[in-house]
Amino acid sequence: MILLSKIAKNTGAVLMGTLVRMGSSFVLILLIARWLGAGGVGEYSIILSLYWIFQKIATMGLEQIIIREVAKAERKAGAYLTAGVIIGIATSVVMSLLMVVFSYLARYNSVIVTSCYIMSGAVLFTTVNLVFQALFIAFEKAELSLYGNVFTGVVRLGLSWAALACGYGIIAIMTVFVLSAFAGMIINMVLTKRCIMTRAVTWEKQVTVWMLKTMPVFAGAQIVNAFSGNITTIIMSLFMSLELVGYYGAAMQLVGAIRMIIQSYKIAIQPVTAKTYVDSLKELRRFCVKSMKYITLFSFPISVGTTLLAQRIISLFYPPEFAISGSLLQVLIWIIPFYGVSMVMTAILIAGEDQKLVFSTLMISLAVRAGLAAALIPLFSYWGAAAAVVASDLVNMLLKAHFIARHYFRISYLHFFWKTAVSAAAMAVILFILKNTVLAVTVSGAVLVYGAALTMLGELPAVRAALKRSGP
Question: Using the 8-state DSSP alphabet, how is residue 200 labeled?
């Protein structure tokens, strides 16, 4: 039996680090918005989009390979760690150069180009850092990643705030980003030596060669995923002003915060799905259905509530000039339920070593996103960007559902979704009734009604029972 309490522990550890990183990043966006305005947020969004594209490509799927293989054979951890670091350094150097070249070819302003030079260091440090974190997760010691994530997040936010307060701009913030990434890498290196690899680590040529041969499909998926998450911002930057890119970036920052929570859960369950796939396909199906149910219980009401409260949420965090972000948030928030279910499906496909199917879905959804973005942004501005992102995430989820039904097992999605939908509808009625009250009262009332509706339908008691049965 799969112990959900163990999953909860690993998810909690990954999530805590994610929350610190997410929180510091979100607060930093707010500080940039207030000190540098929408144009500053636009520059920051473009730089980070370029950074994440090339950094994710540099990782080349190393995280997924290390997590899967070390979870199956812990004795080979040292060999996979060494090979991962060597490959990561080599790919990071290449991607850093390409990032700088692209910033020139795109004819960005001097702030963005200079920042790309600086962020080339962060590409290297972050890639190596992720190799160490993958090892922590494979050993189901995800809590070790907390130390580096907390330190990095706190230092990055504190020094960036000081730089803005002293009158510095985006270039100073990017410098802080690189220094904090280096510090996080050193912390995880020390933790790996003390808590995971207490013996000397040796390099094994055959493991490195095997990883290089295995990487193409993982790397392909990683490359497509990198572009998928950031291509819309890059296309916007080629057609629109920095201010409009900033409005879009402000809304996506809120959506991205929720996506990072879901990503934490997916990372935590990946070793379990890999082991369960080997033991029992029936058990894997049962676990994945539960995971999808929990993700839906979390994500769907957030999308409904945010749609109704978007303008008030944006005004709570951003200056009045960001009112456009509220309208964008009403559309972009619907990424969340599609993305959540899709992440669980990805864990299933990776456990079954069907990386080619993951790659295929990502390729098609990227083509949909890039094609729609290129066609709609010149015509409908930021509305075209929002529509392209939501549509491509829906396509991605539907394709994965098709592949799982065809190659693994069928899932009755309506069976676990209808109670969530009915409860969310009841919550929406309360949100409409309380729309003119204090935001905290409105949200609290909506949460209570949602929970009460789930209880009346028997969903919350069922969840509690499942957690109790899966305990130690």
Answer: P
Residues 6+ apart with CB under 8 A from 452: none
Count the Cβ atoms, other than its own, within 10 Å of residue 461.
Answer: 11
Single out the residue of 139, 109, 97, 126 nearest to residue 46, CA to CA: 109
What's 7's DSSP letter?
Answer: H
Give residue 472's pLDDT. Answer: 41
- Render the burial of 341-353: b for 16+ CB within 10 Å, e for the rest: bbbbbbbbbbbbe
CB 178 within 8 A of CB 56: no
Q: What are the φ/ψ torsions at residue 169 (nearest 5 degrees)?
A: -125, -145
Largest CA distance in the chain: 66
Indicate the Cα dihedral angle 271, 274, 277, 280, nearest 10°.
-30
Q: Within the chain, how many helices (H) and strands (E) appear?
A: 16, 0
d(CA 183, CA 186): 5
Q: Would residue 318 be called left, alpha or beta, if left means φ above 0 and alpha means ψ between -120 and 50 degrees?
A: beta
Residue 415's Cβ-count burial label (10 Å; 0-12, 13-18, 19+) is: exposed
Taking the C-alpha atoms of residue 416 and residue 291, their distance in angstroms, rounded to an integer, is 11
Report the candidate in 407, 92, 350 with the shortest Cα–Cα distance to residue 214.
350
What's the pLDDT tens digit per position in 24-54?
888 999 999 999 999 999 999 999 999 999 9
Q: Are the beta carbons of 119 and 171 closer than 8 angstroms?
A: no
- Contact between 245 and 50 (Cβ < 8 Å): no
**How far is residue 227's CA from residue 234's CA, in Å, rounded to a whole number?**
9
Per-residue pLDDT reduced to its tens digit, 268-302: 777 777 777 767 778 888 888 888 888 999 999 99
d(C-alpha 101, C-alpha 116), whole Å: 9
pTM over 0.70: yes
Q: Is 458 helix (H, G, I), strand (E, B) or coil?
A: coil
**Residues 38/246, Cβ–Cβ less than 8 Å:** yes
Burial group, residue 1, by CB count within 10 angstroms (0-12, 13-18, 19+)? exposed
The tokens for 336 are 């969340």
In contact, 453 and 423? CB cutoff 8 Å: yes
- The CA distance from 158 to 254, in Å, is 21
In the three-class reduction of DSSP (H, G, I as helix; E, B as strand; rest coil), residue 334 is classed as coil
Compute the distance between CA of residue 292 and CA of residue 343 in angstroms, rounded to an integer.
Answer: 9
List of the chain residues with pLDDT < 50: 1-3, 467, 470-472
Q: Which of 88, 10, 462 is nearest to 266 (CA)?
A: 10
Which secondary-structure segment (H or E) carries 404? helix 382-407
Instruction: Indicate the length of the chain as a whole number.
Output: 472
